Description:
The structure is a single chain. This protein is an alpha/beta fold. The protein contains eleven helices and seven strands. The protein has helices at 11-17, 23-33, 50-56, 69-78, 116-119, 121-126, 147-158, 176-183, 203-211, 214-217, 221-237, and strands spanning 40-44, 61-65, 85-88, 102-108, 127-140, 191-202, 241-254. It has a seven-stranded mixed sheet, sandwiched between helices. Strand 1 (40-44), helix 3 and strand 2 form a beta-alpha-beta unit. It is globular. 36% of the residues are buried.
Amino acid sequence: MEQRFTFDGVAALYGEARPTYPELIFDNIAAFAGLGGRDTILEIGCGTGQATQGFALRGFSVLALEPGKELIGIARKNLSEFPNIRFAETTFEAWPGKPETFKLVMAAQSFHWVAPDVRFAKTAEQLAPGGTLAVFGNVPMPPSSPLAAEFARLYSQYAPSLSSPPVEAWYLPDGAFAELLGESEYFEPATHRCYPWSQMHSADSYTDLLRTLSSHRLLADEQRETLLAAIAEVIVMHGGEFELRYETHLYMAKRRREK
């Protein structure tokens, strides 16, 4: 199974445990893209609809793509009151496309899963002239001491394969995405914005979050549960809850004009 398809097995937990996005992001994207009431947004990988809802609440129309049957089922239910939100159960790669249709193509925490050979080329094809690509992702920051050192010790002991930077680091300004977008022949230089925020976690809520991460999903069940039990024990030993800081990184770029 491809790593990106592991989320569907924990779809309900994904919808409950995964953080949403700062509200300001949706206003900033709409302003940058110049969205109007008749414009339709294409979303790549909607999951359970956390980001979709941000645009739905602002009255925009969205065509949301999602390959996970369980995930898209939850998204349909969560957004059933919005008639302007449509769904297609498919990957972006397999979707036939609607060239030059959309004023905005957006991807929240999903663009790193798109195949590199179609990532920018196919996205640009879907955009109307002057259209915008908006990509954003939540990047968790290391927790404060002493939890950072304790967590590092536990990963080294129980899951050394996960000791490297998390996949979310792809969205950092010095990460792979910013460089790839900057090198793309399909888009103008990007505008980048960073939104710092935080969320309190208990031992249960944090280990539930970890259970939805693809990296942890790929561990053997016994290995994963042993790791998560040790993490929960450390959190309880240090007061039972902690503040997890995030940075949400947003990149917006206009489709390059034809020469």
